[in-house]
Design brief:
The chain is an alpha+beta fold and 183 residues long. It contains four helices and nine strands. The strands form two sheets. Strands 1-3-9-5-6-7-2 form a seven-stranded mixed β-sheet. Strands 4-8 form a two-stranded antiparallel ribbon. The radius of gyration is 16 Å and the shape is globular. GO terms for molecular function: helicase activity. This is Helicase. Keywords: ATP-binding, Helicase, Hydrolase, Nucleotide-binding.
Amino acid sequence: MHVDNEEVYPNRLVTTRTVEIGGLTKAQLIQKLKQSDIRMNEYAERLLTDDRFTTSDTRYSLQTVEVTVGDLGFRDGATTDQIYQRAAEFGLALCPLELGPYIRLQYADQPEGDSGDGVQRNQAPSGSITLASRRLTDDDDFPKGFYLRRMNDALWLRGYRADHLHVWNPYDHFIFVKPEPRS
Protein backbone atom coordinates (compact mmCIF):
# COMPACT_ATOMS: atom_id res chain seq x y z
CA MET A 1 0.00 0.00 0.00
CA HIS A 2 1.37 3.42 -0.99
CA VAL A 3 0.88 6.21 1.51
CA ASP A 4 1.68 9.83 0.69
CA ASN A 5 3.39 10.99 3.90
CA GLU A 6 2.20 14.57 3.42
CA GLU A 7 -1.39 13.38 3.77
CA VAL A 8 -1.00 11.43 7.03
CA TYR A 9 -0.32 12.17 10.68
CA PRO A 10 1.93 13.90 11.87
CA ASN A 11 1.97 16.06 8.73
CA ARG A 12 -1.77 16.78 8.96
CA LEU A 13 -3.42 19.32 11.20
CA VAL A 14 -5.05 17.38 14.05
CA THR A 15 -6.84 18.27 17.26
CA THR A 16 -4.88 18.01 20.49
CA ARG A 17 -6.18 18.45 24.01
CA THR A 18 -4.71 18.38 27.49
CA VAL A 19 -7.01 16.40 29.77
CA GLU A 20 -6.80 16.19 33.57
CA ILE A 21 -7.67 12.73 34.86
CA GLY A 22 -7.54 10.81 38.14
CA GLY A 23 -8.14 11.75 41.73
CA LEU A 24 -11.71 10.42 41.96
CA THR A 25 -12.96 7.01 43.01
CA LYS A 26 -15.10 5.13 40.54
CA ALA A 27 -18.24 6.03 42.52
CA GLN A 28 -17.25 9.72 42.59
CA LEU A 29 -16.56 9.71 38.85
CA ILE A 30 -19.95 8.16 38.07
CA GLN A 31 -21.63 10.69 40.37
CA LYS A 32 -19.83 13.56 38.63
CA LEU A 33 -21.04 12.29 35.22
CA LYS A 34 -24.62 12.24 36.54
CA GLN A 35 -24.32 15.70 38.11
CA SER A 36 -22.98 17.03 34.78
CA ASP A 37 -25.98 15.58 32.94
CA ILE A 38 -23.79 13.29 30.84
CA ARG A 39 -25.95 10.65 29.23
CA MET A 40 -24.73 7.06 28.99
CA ASN A 41 -25.87 4.00 27.13
CA GLU A 42 -26.01 0.52 28.66
CA TYR A 43 -22.54 -0.36 27.29
CA ALA A 44 -20.92 2.67 28.96
CA GLU A 45 -22.59 1.78 32.25
CA ARG A 46 -21.34 -1.81 31.94
CA LEU A 47 -17.78 -0.59 31.39
CA LEU A 48 -17.88 1.87 34.28
CA THR A 49 -19.28 -0.62 36.78
CA ASP A 50 -17.07 -3.55 35.77
CA ASP A 51 -14.45 -4.53 38.38
CA ARG A 52 -11.74 -4.33 35.67
CA PHE A 53 -12.45 -0.61 35.13
CA THR A 54 -10.15 1.20 37.54
CA THR A 55 -9.45 4.81 38.42
CA SER A 56 -6.22 6.48 39.47
CA ASP A 57 -5.94 7.97 42.96
CA THR A 58 -3.53 10.58 41.61
CA ARG A 59 -4.50 13.48 39.34
CA TYR A 60 -2.38 13.86 36.22
CA SER A 61 -2.52 15.36 32.73
CA LEU A 62 -2.52 13.61 29.38
CA GLN A 63 -1.92 15.14 25.97
CA THR A 64 -4.43 13.63 23.53
CA VAL A 65 -4.38 13.58 19.75
CA GLU A 66 -7.58 13.20 17.71
CA VAL A 67 -7.03 11.69 14.26
CA THR A 68 -9.18 10.05 11.63
CA VAL A 69 -8.54 6.58 10.29
CA GLY A 70 -7.68 8.34 7.00
CA ASP A 71 -5.16 10.59 8.81
CA LEU A 72 -3.31 7.37 9.67
CA GLY A 73 -3.09 6.51 5.96
CA PHE A 74 -6.04 4.13 5.64
CA ARG A 75 -8.03 5.52 2.72
CA ASP A 76 -10.27 2.44 2.56
CA GLY A 77 -10.69 1.97 6.30
CA ALA A 78 -8.98 -0.45 8.68
CA THR A 79 -9.57 -2.83 11.57
CA THR A 80 -9.00 -1.76 15.16
CA ASP A 81 -5.72 -3.68 15.36
CA GLN A 82 -4.45 -2.08 12.13
CA ILE A 83 -5.40 1.40 13.41
CA TYR A 84 -3.69 0.84 16.77
CA GLN A 85 -0.55 -0.57 15.13
CA ARG A 86 -0.24 2.37 12.71
CA ALA A 87 -0.81 4.88 15.51
CA ALA A 88 1.98 3.21 17.52
CA GLU A 89 4.28 3.58 14.49
CA PHE A 90 3.59 7.32 14.68
CA GLY A 91 4.44 7.39 18.40
CA LEU A 92 0.85 7.49 19.65
CA ALA A 93 -0.26 5.33 22.57
CA LEU A 94 -3.53 3.81 23.66
CA CYS A 95 -5.53 5.77 26.21
CA PRO A 96 -6.24 4.49 29.68
CA LEU A 97 -9.92 3.53 29.70
CA GLU A 98 -10.38 5.97 32.60
CA LEU A 99 -9.77 8.84 30.14
CA GLY A 100 -13.23 8.33 28.56
CA PRO A 101 -15.32 9.77 31.40
CA TYR A 102 -12.82 12.55 32.11
CA ILE A 103 -12.56 13.75 28.52
CA ARG A 104 -16.35 13.64 28.25
CA LEU A 105 -16.64 15.89 31.29
CA GLN A 106 -14.05 18.35 29.95
CA TYR A 107 -14.98 18.39 26.24
CA ALA A 108 -18.35 20.13 26.51
CA ASP A 109 -18.20 21.97 23.17
CA GLN A 110 -18.17 18.87 20.96
CA PRO A 111 -20.00 19.64 17.70
CA GLU A 112 -23.44 18.12 17.18
CA GLY A 113 -23.59 14.85 15.24
CA ASP A 114 -26.63 13.86 13.25
CA SER A 115 -29.51 12.24 15.10
CA GLY A 116 -28.65 8.81 13.75
CA ASP A 117 -31.89 8.28 11.83
CA GLY A 118 -29.99 7.39 8.66
CA VAL A 119 -27.03 5.66 10.33
CA GLN A 120 -26.33 2.08 9.35
CA ARG A 121 -25.76 -0.46 12.09
CA ASN A 122 -22.19 -1.44 12.93
CA GLN A 123 -20.75 1.96 12.00
CA ALA A 124 -19.48 4.78 14.17
CA PRO A 125 -22.19 7.47 14.39
CA SER A 126 -21.71 10.81 12.68
CA GLY A 127 -19.73 13.23 14.84
CA SER A 128 -18.57 10.56 17.28
CA ILE A 129 -15.01 10.22 18.60
CA THR A 130 -13.78 6.80 19.73
CA LEU A 131 -11.30 6.47 22.58
CA ALA A 132 -8.43 4.20 21.49
CA SER A 133 -7.96 1.92 24.48
CA ARG A 134 -7.10 -1.64 25.35
CA ARG A 135 -10.06 -4.02 25.63
CA LEU A 136 -10.97 -5.29 29.09
CA THR A 137 -11.83 -8.70 27.60
CA ASP A 138 -11.85 -10.52 24.26
CA ASP A 139 -15.50 -11.48 24.82
CA ASP A 140 -17.33 -10.12 21.72
CA ASP A 141 -20.48 -9.53 23.79
CA PHE A 142 -18.72 -7.19 26.21
CA PRO A 143 -18.20 -3.50 25.30
CA LYS A 144 -14.76 -2.72 23.87
CA GLY A 145 -14.46 0.90 24.90
CA PHE A 146 -15.98 4.38 24.96
CA TYR A 147 -16.90 6.96 22.39
CA LEU A 148 -18.04 10.57 22.76
CA ARG A 149 -21.03 12.04 21.05
CA ARG A 150 -23.23 15.13 21.15
CA MET A 151 -26.75 14.44 19.97
CA ASN A 152 -29.83 16.67 20.30
CA ASP A 153 -27.68 19.04 22.38
CA ALA A 154 -26.96 16.32 24.95
CA LEU A 155 -23.45 15.07 25.75
CA TRP A 156 -23.06 11.31 25.67
CA LEU A 157 -20.46 8.87 26.94
CA ARG A 158 -21.26 5.69 25.09
CA GLY A 159 -19.77 2.24 25.03
CA TYR A 160 -19.49 0.18 21.86
CA ARG A 161 -18.96 -3.38 20.70
CA ALA A 162 -16.88 -4.33 17.67
CA ASP A 163 -15.15 -7.59 16.88
CA HIS A 164 -11.61 -7.89 15.50
CA LEU A 165 -12.93 -8.04 11.91
CA HIS A 166 -14.81 -4.72 12.10
CA VAL A 167 -13.54 -2.20 9.54
CA TRP A 168 -13.67 1.44 10.61
CA ASN A 169 -14.32 4.05 7.93
CA PRO A 170 -11.55 6.48 6.89
CA TYR A 171 -13.47 9.44 8.35
CA ASP A 172 -14.03 7.83 11.79
CA HIS A 173 -12.29 9.78 14.59
CA PHE A 174 -10.08 8.26 17.30
CA ILE A 175 -8.36 9.75 20.34
CA PHE A 176 -4.86 8.54 21.24
CA VAL A 177 -2.38 9.72 23.86
CA LYS A 178 0.84 11.46 22.91
CA PRO A 179 3.40 10.12 25.40
CA GLU A 180 5.53 12.61 27.30
CA PRO A 181 9.03 12.96 25.83
CA ARG A 182 11.61 11.09 27.88
CA SER A 183 14.51 13.08 29.19
